[in-house]
Specification:
Elements lengths: L20 E7 L4 H11 L5 E8 L5 H8 L3 E4 L8 H13 L5 E4 L8 H6 L4 E5 L11 H7 L4 E8 L9 E8 L6 H24 L3 E4 L2 E4 L2 E2 L5 E2 H7 L1
Parallel strand pairs: 1-2, 1-4, 2-3, 4-5, 7-11
Antiparallel strand pairs: 5-6, 6-7, 8-9, 9-10
Helix pairs in contact: 1-6, 5-6
The structure holds 5-O-phosphono-beta-D-ribofuranosylamine.
The site of 5-O-phosphono-beta-D-ribofuranosylamine has 14 residues, from α1, β5 and α6.
Length: 237
């Protein structure tokens, strides 16, 4: 189904007709990560075209962000489906109608079925607000605070069938100070999310990043389980 892509290993993951990596972005809420993709695509940092933004919630503010940028939007309300599988099948068909090279989960608050995840194997990314493998699931910042951790962060990873368990690509960490609460941490971590998520997509678009079985491969090397550390990357610049 990835007919529009030149394919990893043969060059970039750019669409043959536009020479840009075609993205479909899935959201459920505010869409600040979506906004970062929009900004990076407009300013040329990310050689991508956002073909569509799809939300399972009609009132997601991210839909407004997409419309403001002239991007097509779809709402597929999961409550109108009898089963997760039926919703996922419709979602899959909508996504494929845009023939994306890469699908971006940006605060999409639905667990995806095995069929869906397998269908998009190697071209489905997520961002999770913790230093995976720590704290998969919800309430990550509060859990880090409750555990007395000195740092937290965010991880971009390939999506596999294991919830928040797919191979990590890039991770950014944030120090926790004594006056932090879950909301101050969320705010700090989001600032980093907005940098590392488009960065991972840029690597994918450039053909430098791929999923091989259950391993993330970057520049032909297997990444460690926690992915590339963004802070180290910064220091190397
Ligand atoms: C982010 O914290 C992201 O890590 C998580 O959902 C949140 C989405 O935020 N998956 P936004 O809608 O992009 O502002």
């Amino acid at each position: 189904m990835q007919a529009a892509s030149t394919g990893i290993g043969t060059g970039t993951n750019a669409n043959a007709s536009t020479n840009k990596c075609k993205l479909v972005i899935l959201i459920s809420g505010g869409g600040s990560n979506l906004q970062s993709f929009i900004d990076n695509s407009i300013n040329g940092t990310l050689n991508a075209e956002i073909a569509a933004v799809i939300s399972n919630k009609a009132d997601a503010y991210g839909l407004q962000r997409a419309s403001n940028a002239g991007i097509a939007t779809d709402v597929i309300d999961h409550t109108e489906f009898d089963s997760r599988e039926a919703f996922d099948e419709t979602l899959k068909q909508h996504i494929e109608s845009y023939a994306p090279d890469l699908v971006i989960l940006a605060g999409f608050m639905r667990i995806l079925s095995s069929d869906f995840v397998q269908h998009f194997h190697g071209r489905l990314l997520n961002i999770h607000p913790s230093l995976l493998p720590k704290y998969p699931g919800l309430n990550t910042h509060q859990r880090a605070l409750d555990a007395g951790d000195s740092e937290t962060g965010a991880t971009v990873h390939f999506v596999t069938e294991e919830l928040d368990g797919g191979p990590a690509i890039i991770q950014a960490s944030v120090s926790i100070s004594t006056d932090d609460d879950a909301s101050s941490l969320a705010e700090k971590v989001l600032q980093h999310e907005h940098v590392i998520y488009p960065e991972a997509a840029r690597w994918f678009a450039e053909g430098r990043l791929k999923l091989d079985g259950n391993h993330a491969i970057f520049d032909n090397e297997k990444l460690p389980v926690t992915g590339i550390q963004f802070n180290q990357l910064e220091n190397q610049k």
